[in-house]
Specification:
two-stranded antiparallel ribbon, about 10% strand
C-alpha cells in the first residue's frame, strides 16, 4: 500500500481537474506506509508522522527552491517567463490536515482551537506557521525528540503530533490556515449529512422534512428526493 500525492496548477479550470481523462492532476510521488518494530503504538504514530514530513521535505525541495528564487519557464506560445511556485492549496480530509499541520487530532489544523473549544460561538485565531514552529521548538527544548515517550508527553500538552521538521517550513508564504483546503466528500457532503440534515430531521421530523423535499421543483440534471432524505445513507 502507498500514500498517493498528486499535483496540479491553481490556474487550471475546475471542470478540467474534475475529469481524470484530461490529466489535470499528475502523480507526484508514492509514499510507502511503513511498519515499525517498536512495541509502543503511540511511538509508531510519532515515527510515521515524522517520516511523512521528512519524505515530502525531500521530494518538494525543488518546488520550495522555485518558490524562493524562481525559475525561467516557457509558456505554451514559447515566451519565457520567470515563475515562482507558491503553495496555494493542499486538499485533504481532516486526518490528513492534522498530519500536514503537525497538530494532534484534538486540535484544529487551521485555527488555534482545541477539541474543548470547537463549540465556541466565535472564530479562533488562524493557525500560523510561526506559532506552530515556535511550539515545536519549545517542545524540542524541553525534551529531545529521540526520547520518544517524554517527547510525546510534551507535544500532547501543546496539541502537536510530534513532527519536528514540517515539510512546509521554509516554503515562502505558506500558512496552514491558508493552504489547507477542505475536501468536498468529507467536509461538505458528509458534514452536511452528519450535522445539517440530522439537525433538520430532529427539529421538524422526518415526515415533515420529506414532504418539503417532495414539493421541490427539480432542475434538469439534479437528483430528486420524492421520498425525502431521512432514509438516505
Amino acid at each position: 500500500m502507498a500514500y498517493l500525492v498528486l499535483i496540479s496548477l491553481a490556474n487550471i479550470d475546475a471542470d478540467i481537474c474534475s475529469k481524470t481523462s484530461l490529466h489535470g492532476y499528475l502523480l507526484l510521488t508514492l509514499l510507502s506506509i511503513p511498519n515499525f518494530v517498536h512495541k509502543d503504538s503511540c511511538t509508531h504514530g510519532l515515527l510515521r508522522d515524522q517520516l511523512f514530513h521528512q519524505a515530502l521535505n525531500h521530494i518538494l525541495t525543488p518546488l520550495k527552491t522555485t518558490a524562493t528564487v524562481g525559475m525561467m519557464m516557457s509558456n505554451p506560445i514559447g515566451n519565457l517567463c520567470y515563475c515562482y511556485m507558491p503553495l496555494p492549496s493542499w486538499i485533504a480530509d481532516t486526518l490528513e490536515e492534522c498530519l500536514i499541520a503537525t497538530v494532534s487530532l484534538r486540535a484544529s489544523p487551521v485555527t488555534t482551537a482545541t477539541s474543548k473549544q470547537f463549540g465556541d460561538p466565535f472564530p479562533h485565531t488562524p493557525r500560523t506557521s510561526q506559532s506552530t514552529l515556535s511550539a515545536i521548538r519549545a517542545a524540542c527544548t524541553e525534551h529531545a525528540p529521540s526520547d520518544y515517550k517524554s517527547f510525546l508527553k510534551v507535544v500532547k500538552q501543546l496539541s502537536l503530533n510530534g513532527v519536528v521538521d514540517a515539510f512546509w517550513n521554509g516554503w515562502p508564504l505558506s500558512q496552514p490556515s491558508e493552504f489547507i483546503t477542505p475536501e468536498i466528500l468529507h467536509h461538505f457532503f458528509q458534514f452536511s449529512w452528519d450535522h445539517n440534515v440530522k439537525w433538520c430531521i430532529a427539529a421538524t421530523g422526518a415526515d415533515e422534512l420529506g414532504f418539503h423535499f417532495s414539493l421541490l421543483q427539480t432542475p434538469v440534471g439534479y437528483c430528486t428526493f420524492k421520498d425525502g432524505v431521512s432514509k438516505l445513507k
